[in-house]
Structure formats: structure tokens, C-alpha cells
Amino acid sequence: MEPLLDYKIAVLVFMNNDSGEHLLLLRAKPPNLGSWSPIGGKLETSTGESPFECAIRETHEETGHVITTSDLHLFSMVAEKAYEGAAHWLLFLFKCRRPINVLPPVMKEGRFGFFSRNNVSILPLPETDRTALWPIYDRYHDSFVALRLDCTQGPAAHVEVEQITPHQSSEHQ
């Protein structure tokens, strides 16, 4: 029988500087304590917050960077079943189109760094980030994909694509 776990809803925001380096946070608190990851956080479901509102709020809270909905591209919706055996997660992955060129200050959530994509691969990352989220970013950050990850057998999740919407050139948008 599958575990009865709570469902949590969160966003991750992939941000870059003008050099194309990724802004990552070395997490000082669980989940993902001691690992580098994009900024993000849980939706305030009690207020009816949308994923876009959450991405804007979390970006400002964690970095001080002010963005709007038009600065965001939703490139993936990921349903993670039984992440770390503790909860199911519905993740909305955003690419921020507005660069951030100054490292935000250290905060209670952790400290920041800029990393080339190659260097991201050698950092301590949450295992599902390494095996699923970064490959999703690499392949779909200019399009859209809905995925299901089954983590019931551990962090090397089984990934199933549920829908892909290809990148459209700006003349078709």
C-alpha cells in the first residue's frame, strides 16, 4: 500500500546573471540542508496565492530582486510522489527572464553563489535536482513540460512525461 502523505505545493525560480551563471542558494535548513538549489518556496495556500504570485514573492523575499509576472516563464510542472518518503510535492519551475547581477546577502535560508552550468553539475545538489530537475531545465527551459516523478523507491526517481508544449518563436506568440 502506498504511503498516505501530505501534498505540498512549491515553486523554484531559476535565475541567471548577465554572464549566464545560475544563482543558487546553499540551503541552511531542511529540506535540502547543505545542498545548492534554485530559490523558491511553498505557496501560501491559505491566501489563495498562485504559483506566479509565489515566485514573485519568494524572489523578492530571498534576493531583494523585484520582478513581475512578465519576467517569468513557467517551463515545468512536476508532480513528485513520496519525495524523501515525507510528502508529495507539486512543483512549478520558472525561468526568470530578468537577470540578477549582484549576489544577495546571506540570510537565515542560507548563502548565495553564481555558478556556470558545468559547475552546477559538481556541486552538492539534492539527488532529485541532479537526476531530474536540472535535466528538465536543460531540455525544457524555453518550452513547457508536465512531468510525474515517482520517488517511492528512492531519490533516483522514475520520470514520466505527461505533456510537452514546444518552444514557440516570438513571432508566433
Summarize the structure.
The protein is an alpha+beta fold and 173 residues long. It has helices at residues 51-63, 117-120, 127-140, and strands at residues 7-16, 22-27, 36-37, 39-42, 72-83, 87-96, 110-115, 144-150, 158-165.
Strand content: 35-45%
User: What structural class results from the helix and strand content?
Assistant: alpha+beta
The stretches of 5 or more residues where confidence is low (pLDDT under 50) are none
Number of helices: 3
Helix proportion: 10-25%
Distance between the termini: 45 Å
**The CATH homologous superfamily:** Nucleoside Triphosphate Pyrophosphohydrolase
CATH architecture assignment: Alpha-Beta Complex
Largest sheet: 9 strands, mixed
What can you see in these coordinates?
This protein has 3 helices and 9 strands. It is of the alpha+beta class. The protein has a single domain, classed as Nucleoside Triphosphate Pyrophosphohydrolase (Alpha-Beta Complex), CATH 3.90.79. Strands 1, 2, 3, 4, 5, 6, 7, 8 and 9 form a 9-stranded mixed beta sheet that branches. The longest helix is centred in the C-terminal third of the chain and has 14 residues, at 127-140. The N and C termini lie far apart (45 Å). 31% of the residues are buried.
